[in-house]
Amino acid sequence: MKLTLEQVRHVAHLARLALTPEEEVRAASKLSAILDAVDTLRELDTTDVPPTSHAVLVEALLREDVVKPGLPPEVALANAPAKADTSFVVPKVIE
Amino acid sequence: MPIEDFQPVIGLEVHAQLLTGSKLFCSCATTFGAPPNHHVCPVCLGMPGVLPVLNARVVEFAVRTGLALRCEVRRTSVWARKNYFYPDMPKGYQITQYDQPICEHGVLTIDTPGGERDVRIRRIHMEEDAGKSVHDAHAGASLVDLNRAGVPLLEIVSEPDIRSSEEAAEYLKALRDVVVYLGVNDGNLEEGSFRCDANVSVMPRGSATLGTRVELKNLNSFRFVRLAIDYEIARQVEVLESGGKVQQETRLWDAQRSETRAMRGKEEAHDYRYFPEPDLPPLHLEDALLDRVATSLPELPRPRFRRFVSQYGLPEDTAHVLTGERALADYFEAVALHVKDPKRLANWLQGELLRLLKEENALLSALRFTPAQLGELLGMVEAGTLSASAAKDVFAEMFRTGRAPRDVVAEKGLAQESDVGAVEAVVDQVLAACPKEVAQYQAGKKQVLGFLVGQVMRAMKGKGNPALVNQVLKSRLGE
Q: Hey, are the CB atoms on B36 and A86 less than 8 Å from each other?
């Protein structure tokens, strides 16, 4: 299956990747190869096989609903490129 | 075609914040109103290398809600990643449930002008809330607070079975009553702990093909739900009537302008690329949990309303008020054990109690007197030893101080004389002292009775039981 450049740009945008035109072409061919591999797998008849969501089947561990202190705000914000008091500052997200 | 020839079709999605102490996947507090980023940890901040650990109470609340809404509960449900970028979603994805939600195929019964109607519930799933962005406080930037990130939500999705804005409001009220009764949600639309989105479309009446639907957001009161849906129905009909097509889009309700308007730039955001959450194994529910939750379900608002009407003989509107809040209904039943006349009790709760609570801005849980004490007070009114108006004064005193009614009555000397012998003795004295009035009465001037009652009450310093005084006077006067 051949992925179009249009599809590559769409996926790149969803992943917030800025690709150069050369990278878009390369990604199209690499991603197409992956889809081809998936197509090969799809030749198997899996009608009676339940989908596998997890490779290792472990029981879910549940936690009691108990509150514990989190991080002090100055630690929580230590890596923030910008902050105002104890808020993270980010580029404006709506016009 | 006029608007009446179009059939609105409405489905509702409710996000109900669960009343847990800690978040869905970490132990941070869910408390509302802390300063920004004071309830955060590496898990809800989306730091690399952390793993989510599921809160057991969230599962229990989801099952409780599912059973109350007559859903099928899935023995194995699967978590999913919903991928999108937004600054208040630090991981770059939301952990939610997708194709295998914990509950499906339920029913909620609502009232309509044509009687009761069942609205089908499509699904209920668990998911984490996002943080909060503030856009206007900082020039050219947005502020992000992640206190709410990771707070547990139930998303409850109806089938498109709703046909009018009134039915939508009824559905939401009924659903809110249920989740509040279950103790899983506080039902607060204004503060956003019970949030509603509406999917609205219209089609010509009699058509079998649904119209294009529009999702409405920002409906944070029952009134806005009705206004926004009515506005949207009219808008879509107008678009169709002028030869246009309804665009599938998300629109925000603007309460200032009373209109819906399109949100911009969201078209591509709908590609969420869901996949099974690798950090959480599928959730298996044990029979023991389901049994325990099923047996601990409280009586729900609608059956309780019906029982209040049949068991206590209450009028429907009174029963609605009393069962509207679980605490009030519980209180009514606790006092009802101590009184003979449940209707009188209902009137007292609806009148005196709710009025004082409102005046003092107090909650039922803060009442200083016991249900038995209120029962005792009403018992005095029933026995005629306390007048209804004096009882209101005693009640106000009990409300303020929590003192026992008999102490208040004794201290204020409010007890009413209901002993027949004592009343008869006073009546005889008064009649002996007023031969002229007695003669007038017996000559047919019945209004003299009022004067005689007044004389008796004065002699008894206002403490005679008025009904008894009347009755004794009349019988002594030969009626």
A: yes
How far is the C-alpha of B426 from the C-alpha of B471, rounded, in Å? Answer: 13
Report the alpha-carbon distance of residue B276 to residue B78 in Å, rounded: 7
**Which member of B40, B56, B282 has the closest CB to residue A65?**
B56
Which positions in chain A touch B37 (Cβ < 8 Å)? 73, 76-77, 86-88
CATH code for the domain in which residue B446 is found: 1.10.10.410
Distance separating alpha carbons of residues B167 and B119, to the nearest angstrom: 10
Q: Does residue B242 share a domain with residue B349?
A: no
Residues of A in contact with B28 (CB under 8 A): 67-68, 70
Question: Are B144 and B112 within one domain?
Answer: yes
Query: How many domains are there within chain B?
Result: 3
Domain boundary among B235, B268, B289: B289
Cβ contact B138–A89 (<8 Å): yes
Report which of B407, B402, B393 is spatially closest to residue B352, judged by C-alpha positions. Answer: B393
In a shared domain, residues B273 and B309: no
Q: B283 and A66: CB-CB below 8 Å?
A: no
A10 and B134: CB-CB below 8 Å?
no
DSSP run (H or E) holding B160: none
- Indicate the pTM of the whole model: 0.81
| B240 shares its domain with B180 | yes
Question: A89: distance to nearest CA of chain B, Å?
Answer: 5
**DSSP secondary structure, B106-130, as one string:** EEEEEEETTEEEEEEEEEEEEEEPP
For domain A5-42, the CATH architecture is: Orthogonal Bundle (1.10)
Structural domain for B312, as ranges: 299-412
- Specify whether B466 is located in the same domain as B406: no
Q: DSSP label at B401?
A: H
Task: Please give the residue of chain A at the shortest CA–CA distance from B152.
Answer: A65
Q: Is B294 inside any structural domain?
A: no
Interchain proximity A95–B264, CB inside 8 Å: yes
Phi-psi sector, B49: left (phi>0), alpha (psi -120 to 50), beta: left
B226 and B127 in one domain?
Answer: yes
**Ordered per-residue pLDDT tens for chain B, 479 residues:** 788 889 999 999 999 999 999 999 999 999 988 999 999 999 999 999 999 999 999 999 999 999 999 999 999 999 999 998 888 899 999 999 999 999 999 999 998 888 889 999 999 999 999 999 888 777 788 999 999 999 999 999 999 999 999 999 999 999 999 999 999 999 988 888 999 999 999 999 888 888 999 999 888 889 999 999 999 999 999 999 898 898 888 898 988 888 888 876 555 556 888 999 999 999 999 999 999 999 999 999 999 999 999 999 899 988 988 898 888 899 898 888 888 888 888 988 888 888 888 888 888 877 888 888 888 888 888 877 777 777 888 888 888 888 888 787 777 766 676 677 777 888 888 888 888 888 888 888 888 888 888 887 887 777 777 777 787 788 888 76
Q: Please compute, for residue B475, the number of CA atoms within 13 A of its CA located in the half-sphere on the CB side.
A: 10
User: Is residue B218 less than 8 Å (CB to CB) from chain A?
Assistant: no
Q: Does residue B206 sit in the same domain as residue B250?
A: yes
